[in-house]
């Protein structure tokens, strides 16, 4: 394998010994629970929706994953980049791939939900087979739940997606990006019927879900519903997400239950967010770049997550492959190897030793990058923003969804409400 050869070069160990150690460490037949039970660190992948939007393959607004069927080469390439960066999980690009979301608010589709889900499974499996990676099929929150549809109606939507995941024999399932623990419970209950391992992540912070259910209580409910791995994803930065998972872990342990823990945060700093997370920031979604975390921020996140007892460590919106590589590099001492992508990246900037300019060569050291406070280059911009915080959730008229396109009258009402708030 390429990664074995790369590790031989980087670790400067005897090639034969290095290969035997790596092959002994990784049994490619092990599933997600076997790996976590054995104490392994699992590196997740990154934020496909944001990454592919920037590359021109996803439309901001609906954020739907038809690119899996429409532009498979783009999705395949991004999977490969995350694999090379160190990801152990190829998550199917099926975020918001439920039929009710695909046809929400006038969004016309050339592909059915089934076609998108099947294509996404095939791409994830193809790339996973190129390395030591598992395939995870994912479902997420639905417009039907926000519109107060029944439990049976919402569960039927999840069932339609998991039928594809079972057919394609993904390795495990993830219920991700849920703002309400109730809907996440429903998803977990459906996913458990497959007999496959189930992970569940909420897009919440320390304040809990949008009904103010605490992180600890949310985690207990998810474990009781059948999730073996629980945690958070999206909406908040790594520091906030690790803090939240610590609260979940404490709740589970207090209840006398057991689980594995995962976190897949944003790659954006969000110290000014309220309970709704980054979607309330005025910069969302097109001006978030000044908030992006550096690779060194990611190394700090990886270490803090691991020290907190979180062994499934990945990313969500804003995460690019170099961020994932930073996670893998920080935890290389515990994992025993580096990712293939480290072949082109010197540890803590050591590659700068070859730079032509002496002042840049002087930056080839860890303490320089750890102590640096990056400038934004924006002299008239604030360091933090005032989140919108409309305070609406499931059942509110503004959150009732529809198949028809948003009308001009509806938009005018929203514009007026926003103006009145300013």
From TrEMBL:
The keyword Transport does not apply. GO terms for cellular component: cytosol. Pathway: Amino-acid biosynthesis; L-methionine biosynthesis via de novo pathway; L-methionine from L-homocysteine (BhmT route): step 1/1. Gene3D superfamilies: Homocysteine-binding-like domain (3.20.20.330). GO terms for biological process: L-methionine salvage; methylation. Zn(2+) binds at residues 234, 316-317. This is Betaine-homocysteine methyltransferase. The gene is bhmt.
């Amino acid at each position: 394998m390429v990664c074995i050869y790369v590790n031989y070069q980087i670790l400067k160990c005897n090639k034969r010994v290095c290969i035997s150690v790596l092959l002994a460490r990784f049994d490619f037949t092990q599933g997600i629970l076997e790996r976590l039970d054995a104490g392994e660190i699992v590196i997740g992948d990154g934020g496909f929706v944001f990454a592919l939007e920037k590359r021109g393959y996803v439309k901001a607004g609906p954020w739907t994953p038809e690119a899996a069927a429409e532009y498979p080469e783009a999705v395949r390439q991004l999977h490969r980049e995350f694999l090379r960066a160190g990801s152990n999980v190829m998550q199917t690009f099926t975020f918001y791939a439920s039929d009710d979301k695909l046809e929400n608010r006038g969004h016309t589709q050339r592909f059915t939900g089934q076609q998108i889900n099947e294509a996404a499974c095939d791409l994830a499996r193809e790339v996973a087979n190129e390395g030591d990676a598992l395939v995870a099929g994912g479902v997420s929150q639905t417009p039907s739940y926000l519109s107060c549809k029944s439990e049976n109606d919402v569960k039927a939507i999840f069932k339609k997606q998991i039928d594809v995941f079972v057919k394609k024999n993904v390795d495990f399932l993830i219920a991700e990006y849920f703002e309400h623990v109730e809907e996440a419970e429903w998803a977990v209950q459906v996913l458990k019927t497959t007999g496959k391992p189930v992970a569940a992540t909420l897009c919440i912070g320390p304040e809990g879900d949008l009904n103010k259910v605490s992180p600890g209580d949310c985690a207990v409910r998810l474990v009781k519903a059948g999730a073996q791995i629980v945690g958070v994803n999206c909406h908040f930065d790594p520091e906030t997400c690790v803090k939240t998972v610590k609260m979940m872990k404490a709740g589970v342990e207090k209840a006398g239950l057991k689980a594995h823990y995962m976190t897949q945060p944003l790659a954006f700093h969000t110290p000014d967010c309220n309970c709704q997370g980054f979607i309330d920031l005025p910069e969302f979604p097109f001006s978030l770049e000044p908030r992006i975390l550096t690779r060194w921020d990611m190394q700090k996140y990886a270490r803090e997550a691991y020290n907190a007892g979180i062994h499934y460590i990945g990313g969500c919106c804003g995460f690019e492959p170099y961020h994932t590589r930073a996670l893998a590099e920080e935890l290389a001492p515990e994992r025993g190897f580096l990712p293939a992508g480290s072949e082109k990246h010197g540890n803590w900037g050591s590659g700068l030793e070859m730079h032509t300019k002496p002042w840049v060569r002087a930056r080839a050291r860890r303490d320089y990058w750890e102590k640096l406070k990056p400038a934004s280059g924006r002299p008239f911009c604030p360091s933090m923003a005032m989140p919108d915080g409309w305070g609406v959730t499931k059942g509110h008229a503004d959150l009732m969804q529809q198949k028809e396109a948003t009308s001009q009258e509806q938009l005018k009402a929203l514009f007026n409400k926003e103006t009145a708030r300013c």
